[in-house]
Amino acid sequence: MPTIEGKEGRLWIDAYVKKAGKFSGVMKAVRKLVKKTAADCEEYVSPWKTPAFDSNGPLCVFVLGKEHVTLAFLRGARLPDPEKLLEGKGKGVRNVKLRSLADVKRPGVKRLIAEASKLNKKDPPSGKMVGMDKRRKNEGKK
Description:
Layout lengths: L2 E2 L2 E2 H10 L5 H14 L4 E4 L5 E4 L3 E7 L4 E5 L20 E5 L2 H4 L2 H16 L9 H9 L2
Antiparallel strand pairs: 1-2, 3-4, 4-5, 5-6, 6-7
């Protein structure tokens, strides 16, 4: 597992989640849901120091905000979203704001994770989206 600030990535993420205060439970639920839904994913810390998941390329990240947890899909603009949960107007990234455990449990959230994983398997990201192997090499040099 890649490391950050001298810690194993998983331990760094554990500490990040613990510091989330009232949103700690939401973050734990997101983490569990992503790992269960995209079973082949690997958890790591992104270059922007956010918990992230890789599944045949970058899959999603989650970030603590003042009033919610943001679950961002790096290729969200390409995901089907019948429940209209995704927000954002960027070229690729879309996000879902999660304010409670009930928000995490919405079927559409799990569906978005599954669709993002399926997209990465079918059409792996390329270009500026750095793959896990390259990240491991770079993090090992720090």
